From TrEMBL:
<protein>
    <submittedName>
        <fullName>Vacuolar protein sorting-associated protein 13</fullName>
    </submittedName>
</protein>
<dbReference type="InterPro" id="IPR026847">
    <property type="entry name" value="VPS13"/>
</dbReference>
<dbReference type="Pfam" id="PF25036">
    <property type="entry name" value="VPS13_VAB"/>
</dbReference>
<dbReference type="GO" id="GO:0006623">
    <property type="term" value="P:protein targeting to vacuole"/>
</dbReference>
<feature type="domain" description="Vacuolar protein sorting-associated protein 13 VPS13 adaptor binding">
    <location>
        <begin position="70"/>
        <end position="318"/>
    </location>
</feature>
<dbReference type="GO" id="GO:0045053">
    <property type="term" value="P:protein retention in Golgi apparatus"/>
</dbReference>
<dbReference type="InterPro" id="IPR009543">
    <property type="entry name" value="VPS13_VAB"/>
</dbReference>
<comment type="similarity">
    <text>Belongs to the VPS13 family.</text>
</comment>
Amino acid sequence: MSYNSYLYHSYYRFRDWDHLSLHSFPASSPLTPPSSLPSSECFYELFCPNPVKLYQDITKLQLIIKVPGFNELMVFVGTKSRSRIFQLSPPRNDKRYHVIVTVQVDHLTTKVIVRSPLQILNEMPLPVNVCFKKSIVEMLGHSLGELNSRVVSPVNPFDAHVPMVTLQPDQVFTIPLAVAYHSSLHIQPAAADYGISEVGIWWKDVLSSTCSYLLTCKGKTEHNPEIAAAVTIQEGVKLSSLQWEGLSGVLPNYTLCLSPPLAIHNLLPCTLTLAHPSFAQPLILDPGAKTTLYKIDLGKRISLQVQAIEFREINEAIW
């Protein structure tokens, strides 16, 4: 590529302020002929663009974000794919609330996503209801009408929890601002006769824990074994150190992951048969196959019978 062509493409690549970099131009070699070097005018246009035109390019697309109870927030979209964190004003309930704005630029299409920082991912093999504490939201003065679109079943006025959404396997859900900053989250199996977990998860507790949290849902009948889910935490949108400054422990920029608490992966070169009281029938694991267990009580000793079909011998594994 010639220098003139490089300068032409570099100019349009540098129109967004975030793209400016003094290391983007290739270093010249002492053997390079002087005639092939760009002129001083080209250098000036590349590294010192017209400030008026630069301002017009960056501020050409503007987005006005209106969140009930807060002032309007104006965001410059720009021409580069990126994610940024913005603080809503004024602070409420002695807290600073934030939203994440993600800009996705693909050729001539620009997509803008505005969301709460906290998300939850269902890695369980069954649908799960995600609930929040109704008392905390009512104490803050938020009516349940704001969450009507999130509620998946009629709200019982005597129930202490309100379901927000039914998460299908591998589905991600964004937690509303008021719930993300003030309420712990509870789960409930959606397709079974089970109650809501007595213990909830709070993102700060999971973040400071050295191991995964465990949520258990008891069956409404004695014949239904408990369903357990392990909760781990992952960092959300990648933010720069400047954006993270002063927000550690304040900004819930994370994804809570629900997964089965026990997984069995057959790395042996033979087929295994697994037997457990919670199984309707023995499970067969081919070499390299994996299965998960979630209808178990991890507070008790787990006894699992493992049979290697090739050896026709039953061994007992105990955790």
